[in-house]
Fold this sequence. Notes:
The structure is a single chain. The protein is mainly α. Helices cover 57% and strands 0% of the residues. It has helices at residues 2-5, 19-30, 35-44, 61-64, 69-97. Helix 3 (35-44) packs across helix 5 (69-97).
Amino acid sequence: LGVVSKFAQPKSSGQSLQxxxxxxxxxxATHQLQDQVLTEAMNRYKAPNNCNSLNVPTVNTPIxxxxxxxxxxxxxxxxxxxxxxxxGITAFARSVDGTDVST
Length: 103
């Protein structure tokens, strides 16, 4: 650490989480989930019909036809990441809203 520690920014933090939740978060942050598990989660937590902000945007068809295959591949990867993110936000929102997240 030595010299590097002089430049480290102090971290401010909030209240602690429950240890079981921390263990789950640590596991998810350090292990890759199987594609099947991710797909099931994305399908389970669809965006609520009254919250358009959680719908993943797509490139409109005329533009899609005019971009390179490399750009299309990047866009599809980004859409998958956004879908995973919005599925997680949806699950969180349902838990706060009192909606059953297990369905």
